[in-house]
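Hi everyone, sorry if this is the wrong subforum. Our group has a chain we'd like a structural model of before ordering constructs, and none of us has done structure prediction before. Sequence below.
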Amino acid sequence: MDITVLGTGSADGWPNPWCSCMTCAWARSNNELREPTALLIDQRLLIDFGPTVGGAAERAGVSLIDVDTVLITHAHFDHLAPQHLLTRSWIKADKPLRIIGPVSVMNAIEHWIGPNDPVTLHPIAAGQIIELDGQLTGTTVRALASSHFDGADALGADAVLFDVTTADGKRLLYATDTGPLPQVCVEAVRNAEFDVAFIEETFGHHTNHMTGHLDLATFPEELERLRLVNAITSNTHVIAVHLSHHNPPGDLLSEQLAQWGVHIVTDGTQLSIPPVVQGTHSTWEKLLSNPPRRTLVTGGARSGKSQRAEALLADVTNVRYIATSGSRSDDSDWMQRVAIHQGRRPSTWLTVETLDLVGELSKDDPRPILIDCLSLWLTGTMDRYQIWETTSQSAQRQHALAAIEADVSALVEAVRNVQVDTVIVTNEVGSGIVPEHESGRLFRDLLGRLNAHVAASCDEVELVVAGRVITL
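Answer:
Right subforum, don't worry. Here is the predicted structure as C-alpha cells:
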C-alpha cells in the first residue's frame, strides 16, 4: 500500500489565512501549510475530495489521472468540492469514475456530472461494505459510523469513516471527521489490527468547542478505546490529521502526540507499507519515504534530554539503542541510572553497547537509531588514545588529539550519510564556569567542537532545559 498524504489540515487549513494567533504565526515562520485532509492510495483510490486536492496532488508530484474511485466521508465543503467533476467533464474523459459516500454526498454532486462523463454514484451507509473491481479488484471498503454533526445543518448527519483493505492485505483506518466514536464503530473494528490509522485531532487544548471533533483531551481516550479492542496495535502507525490552529505550535504538538505513540506528517508526505522483513517486529522504519531525519538533543545533566530523545521515537516498535556508557559493574549508582534508562525503553528495542558509532551508523539496517550519548563516546575515545597520560604540550598529546579529531570527522561524516532516522543525545557542558583543572577544560573544548560539528550535519537541534524543549 502506497499512500500520498495530500492534506492534513482542517476546513480552514493551518495557518488560517485570516488569523494572526501564535500557532498560525508559528506555521508561517516554519513554512508549514496544511490543506484540508485527503489521501491518495496506490494512485487509484482517493479519500475525500475537497477544493485543494488538485493543487495538493501537483505539489506532491503525483497525478489524479489514474484515480478510478473516490471515497467521500461527508458533504461538508472541505471534504467535497463537486466542481472537480465539472472540470473533469471539460476534458471529455472516457475513463469510468465511481464515487462512494453517504446519501448527502450523492445529492450534492449529482448535478455536477457532465452529460457524457462516465461517473457512477454508489451511496453507502455505516456498516455497509463495497467490494471494488477493475484496477482495484481485491480492495474492500467498509463504512463506519461517525459522530460528526455540529447541529448547524443536516449535512453531517450521515457522515461516515472508512475501513479500507487493499488487495495486498494491508488495512487502513480513515477516521475524520468525528467526535468520540460511536460504540458500534468501535465494535466494528474489533481485532482489525490496522496497519495505518489516520485519526482526526482538530481542536488541541480548546476543549469547549461543542462540535463533532476530537481534541487533546478526547483524542487519547479514543486511541485507548481502539487499542483495547485490538484495532490499533503496537504495529499500527497512527497519524493525527484534520489539524487546526487551535492546536499548540507544531513542534509542541508533535511532542505531545509522541507520548501516545502518534505522529504528524507534512502535506505531501509519501508513505509506503512494505511486506514484513524477516527477523523484525515491524517495518515502520521504512514507512516514510522522505529522507531520514537527524536530530541532536542537547542539554545539561538531568535536564530530561534522554527522555525527550526517547519520546521522538516512541511510536517506533524497533529501534537500535546505541549505549556508549560501557559497563561499570563496580559503580552501584551508575548501574542504578542505567537500570532506570533500560526500564523506560520498549522491550522490542535492541540495545547495543559500543563506541563504534561509525560502524553502527553505516550498517544496512532499517531500524531507526538512538545514540545516548556523545559525551560518553568522547570520554571513551579519549581514554582509548590514553590522552590523560600525556602532558599538554607533548608530542604524545598532539598525536592523541589528531587521532581524536580524525574519529570525530569520521563520526560527523557517518551522521551526514546515515540512511535511517537518527536521534543523538549529548551534554551541554560549556555554559558554566571555566573548569579548574586542565583535563576538564580539554574535555569541555573537545565536546563543544564535537557538538557543533554534529549539529551542522543534523536536520534539527533541540535544547532541553528543565524538561522543556527549545528548538534551535
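For your construct planning: Residues 150-156, 275-286 have pLDDT under 50 and may be disordered. The CA atoms of residues 244 and 329 lie 51 Å apart.
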